[in-house]
Amino acid sequence: MKLNVEGIEEGKPVPEIFAFGVFNPEDHMSFGPNRNPDMFWEGAPEGTKSFVVMMFDPDVPSVADDANQEGKTVSKDIPRVDFFHWLLVDIPASISRIPEGEDSDGVLPKGKDGGLGPVGLRGVNNFTQFLAGNPDMAGTYCGYDGPCPPWNDELLHHYHYEVHALDVESLGLSGEFDGEAVRNAMAGHVLASARVTGTYTLNPDLR
């Protein structure tokens, strides 16, 4: 199976149009256009009954105390964890494309709704936890929200855009399900997968 993510080349920077946060020399970061990229795939194996689309960053610091703090840096040696930016499940087998901006077009304070989205069923992304302490932004974030790594992180972040072909029409998930729930439900049902990886940073020393 082959996945194309329009505008994102393997190993190259993710364009700012797809980012939640963009570099600002005065304030470190400003809200970005936050559009989901156009994704299309082909070559799904026989027996495919649905698709899962996800995007995650495996380079998020496991301890975020120093993230985005003046006069501090997030050491590249801190252990890293997965941060899910996009979870769509139960995408019908007849669909092989998600157009740009279909699932997200701008930063929406307090998050987008879960449940059935324009394409598939939306899961909860990790901005829900990341912004929980910000009264202006706190909420449940579902669907796509793009890259926004700490602007003082010494590590370049990688963003894995993935599609998985499954042998079931539905994963049976409902309510506020997260990335771990999706991975657990997918186990044993994946017929094929494809991935495109881009990079992103807000650290001026790495740009």
From TrEMBL:
CDD domains: PEBP_bact_arch. SUPFAM superfamilies: PEBP-like. Pfam families: PBP. It comes from the Bacteria. NCBIfam families: YbhB/YbcL family Raf kinase inhibitor-like protein. This is Phospholipid-binding protein, PBP family. It comes from Marinobacter antarcticus.
